[in-house]
Description:
mainly alpha
Amino acid sequence: MTPSRNRKGQTAESIYIETSISELDVSYLGKADILRQIKEAEENVRKMTKAAEERRKALQAEGKRAAMQRTEEAEADLRRRLDSETAEALVQIERRKMAILEDGIRKAEILTSTARGRMGNAKKYVLSEFERAADA
């Protein structure tokens, strides 16, 4: 990860180090103490950077989990609605099918009844035609 830079091109780490160094009264310290304090400041910056990176990763992972959970809930809701609408459509189709079948049965019974009523006349007609052909 590259450190972020401000307008002057300084990283957060270098600003922190410069701030820590500027707060020191260098006139009373030896070079060893200055170097030790610089290293401590650098170590503190590394720890803060690492903690911030871990926090970012944790937040990112939590965001992904929440997004996946919302997606799964939305998909489950969609499936429930789809199943409900499909079941309702099947019931309506079944009702229409039964209505069509009942109408067809009723019409078939009417045709059968009409055909039976005409059967006597048809027999007489066929018999008369046969007799006429036989007489000729």
